[in-house]
Every structure is written in C-alpha cells, then in structure tokens.
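It is worth pausing here to work through a concrete case rather than discussing structure prediction in the abstract. The textbook approach is simple: state the sequence, then state the predicted structure, then interpret. We follow exactly that order.
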Amino acid sequence: MKRVIAVYDVDPFYADRFAKVANQKETVPFTIIAFTSIERLKRYMEENPVEILLVDVGARELVKDCPARQILTLSDGELLPVEKGQTSIYKYQSAEGILREVMACYAAVPEAETSATGTPARLIGVYSPVNRCLKTSFCLALGQIMSRDHKVLYLNLEDCSALAKLMPESFKGNLSDALYYYRQGNYNWVKLATMVYTWGGLDYIAPARYPEDLANVTAETVTGFLSCLSREGVYDAVIADIGQFGRLAAEILDGCQTVYMPIKEDVISAAKIEIFEEYLEDSGRQSLKKRIQKLKLPYHSNFSRREDYLEQLIWGELGDYVRRLLRGPVNEQNPE
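Step two, the predicted structure:
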C-alpha cells in the first residue's frame, strides 16, 4: 500500500485539483488525499497513518497536534516564521514542483520510509562508438513513445548533453547530485524524486552539471547506480543514453537487458564499430556482442526550431521508426 499525503487548504478546489494532478504521477509512491474540512481530516488521521500533511498557512495552528510524521505549510509567498516541524512550500507552482519540494523535506526526516518496492525495471542501454548518429534523438523518441504505456525514466550520461538547453526547466537537482548521493551511500527513492522532471509523459533526471562530474566516474559506479534504479521498482524501464565512456561503456552495457547501437555506414563509422566489437571479443563479452541491436536510424532534415525539436521527433520519421521497433525487432545488422 502506498503511503499517504493528506492535503487541506482553505480553498477546497485547490486541494482537490492538486490531489488529482499529483495522483497521476504514478512514480510518486504516495496516495494524495484532499480534505475539505479540518474535522474530516482529524477523523481520518485517528484511524489511518499519514506520512505528510500539507496544510494551508491559515490553518496550520489547527493541525499542529495532528499525528502526521511531517507537517508542511502551503504558503502564498508570504515569509513565515520557521517553526519546528513546519516547513513552508510555495503553493502557486506546478504540482511537480510542489512534489519535488515535499520529497526533499521528507528525505530529511531520519525515520522516513525511503525504500520502494515493485518489479525491477528493465534497463535499456543505448550506445554507439560512432558520433552524430542520432543516439540521443532516438533515446528521447523511444522514451516518450514508451511512456504512453509504461513508467519510463531517461538518463543522459554524456559529459556535454544538449538536454539542459532543450528542456524548459530550471533544474534544482541533476545527475551529478544523484551520483554523489549514490557514492556517499545516501541514495534512496525519496532523494531521487527531488531530481526527477517530466517532459510529456517521460520522466528524466537533468544531465551532469559539468563535464568534470563524469570524468572520474567509474563504470562500476554507473552500473551500481543503474541497478539501484532498477531494483527500486518505481519504473518499468530505465533508458541510459551512454556517452563516450571509452571502453568502460561495455561494462555498463553488460548490465542492461536491452542494448541498442545506432550506426552509420560510412567507412570511418564502420571501422569504429569493428574496433568496438573486437574489444568485446578480446574482453570476453561475446554475449553482449550478440545482444546488441544495431539500428540504422532515419535522418531528418526538416526540423527547424529548437523549441519544437522534441515534439517533432515523435511525429517524424524517427518516431515512426521507434514505433515499428517496439512492435518487433528492427535490426539490419543482426536480424532475428
């Protein structure tokens, strides 16, 4: 059973709207329940445990003795005095923004439940030794299309990712933070939720802040982090867009159930692929070599504005290609 976030606001329509939107976020392991009166809220809490209580600033004195694990105040922007057990969250922002702040506050509670349970996620690795092969465009189209039927998380592991410029968000947390928490042994699904953003139906973590943040990251660290994401069971699939980790990429890909490799057919690109495959043979990763699905992606030349690029991916040739791929194997080099 999911844990409960109770919401009370002097405006009953606000609480109801927030609960409806927030409950659509299936990756948030809470059930959000809106209450229209303090009396109903207190009666509910007498018989049911509540992890988090979100309450309007005008009613916070009425609930200070309620047995919620954590009480957070919904503020309209007015500066509030800091009181024990009561943290202020600006109420007139997106539901996603509120949930991220709620998760950040909840993660700071020592006794908070920070483990999630569920079916492990399928790990999908996308890598190519070839540059300019539409790898990231493919990942974004794949994730967006898959997210219509499944809960999908996208991670960009490139040291200079374009994602931060393509998404209309101001990121408060990113992959650098997630990997830091993991290396320190402080990773859990609650901290993860504070760094997750959404584009359409696809969840993603913003890419690393600086190239240096990935320069010293080992393949073992990345593999362990991806395994943690999978074991949490919050998502059905995790797509790892793997950058130029050199030959360490093979170790990361080895932990993925599905591996896609966009390719090109020019002489230089073909030589790079041969070198990578020889490395897989020499390092005893023949099984990984057999699992790689090579994809010759359709190039697109009619995209113009950056603002529309992500949407055009889904409805252009690449989107059609991904839909066909998901219906069955599309592998020009390794037909099944």
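Step three, interpretation. Residues 153 and 203 are 5 Å apart (CA to CA). DSSP finds 14 helices and twelve strands in the chain.
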